Amino acid sequence: MTVALVTMSHSPLLGYADPPAEVNAAVQGAFSTARAFVEEYDPTLVVSFAPDHYNGFFYDLMPPFCIGYEALGVGDYGTAEGPLDVPAGRAGELAQWVAERDIDVAVSRRMEVDHGAVQPLEILFGGIDRVPTIPVFVNGVARPFVTMRRVRRLGEAIGGYLASLEDERVLVIGSGGLSHDPPVPQWATADDAARALLLNGRHPTAAARDARQQRVIDTAKAFAAGTATIRDLNPAWDTALMAVFASGDLSPVDAMTPEQMAEDAGNSAHEVRTWVAAFAALGAAGPYDVTYSFYRPIREYIAGFGVMTARTAG
Ligand SMILES: O=C(O)/C=C/c1cccc(O)c1O
Ligand SMILES: [Fe+2]
Question: If pLDDT is split at 50, 70 and 90, which confidence band does 11 have?
Fold first, then answer.
């Protein structure tokens, strides 16, 4: 049994914004390094922890966690549309294992996933159906949020299952974060039209999707120009959290609260829950070494942009 990890920020603006060439080269270099790490490891199974941005999960039924037995990319921001290669039997075993360890997870026999889950698979594998992948939704945008301790325990429970798979080389992916505050609507401040989207905005028309995406693209341009009203990135917060992940002792995340996280690092900083779950899963399989760490605050992408790779030691 071996387990390896890639955690990475995602940004739907990757194909829509134009940062300085040097920044773009640095990000592409980080992706190349992560890709080489994955190619060398050659995983037989991927467990992808990802949030959703009101493309697959809505307030008509919003679980904190969900394991997909089948999954489809929705194709937002030009990402791949269509089925992932989900090993349904393994996904069912995983859900049972986690339930037996007192963690309540929803399951979906038809999970719809957006750029949060799809982008890392495209970057690392060149597609969403190249390697058997179990998608695990971790709510990172829709209040209320479970405690960070709970997320860590979910990761540990999943890591325990992965460690039991003698015949697999498992890669866990955590997608999202770090500090960022993109204009994803929130229930408390949304108008009626936005609330309709948050409640049940599945399968929007092309025009509705374009309008929604254009708003984010325009905000990114304004943010880079220094004229947006969204919360700024917080490199100190981001790098301190990455140091916790690298240390192997995740207990400091238990003290993090949603209120303070939003205050310090923006309303989408909750996406780091996917990193917590991924590192906790890796740590449950044994001590690990971080083999690569990249960080840049990139306003054009509305993202404190981090990439880390790690694997069980020895
Ligand atoms: O869902 C959207 O429209 C935008 C999401 C977004 C924007 C910027 C950075 C991110 O990590 C996002 O998920
Ligand atoms: Fe996101």
Answer: very high
| H or E element at residue 124 | helix 115-125
Which tokens sit at 38? 């994955």
Residue linked to tokens 């700024």: 232
- Best mutation site among 8, 11, 238 for ligand 1 pocket (most ligand atoms within 8 Å of CB): 11
DSSP state, residue 102: T
Please report, rounded to a whole number, the percentage of residues in the chain having pLDDT higher than 70: 100
CB atoms within 10 A of CB 253: 21
Considering only CA atoms, which residue is closest to atom 9 of ligand 1?
A: 11
Q: Look up residue 87 and give its amino acid.
A: P
Contact predicate 7/307, CB 8 Å? yes
The amino acid at 173: I
| Single pTM value for the model | 0.98
For residue 64, is the peptide bond before it cis, meaning its omega torsion is within 30 degrees of 0? no
Distance between CA atoms of residues 129 and 243, nearest Å: 32
Residue 261's DSSP bridge partners are none
d(CA 147, CA 68): 22
Domain ranges of the chain: 2-312
Neighbouring-strand partners of residue 303:
298
To the question of domain 2-312 being in CATH 3.40.50.300, the answer is: no
213: Cα separation from own chain's centroid: 19
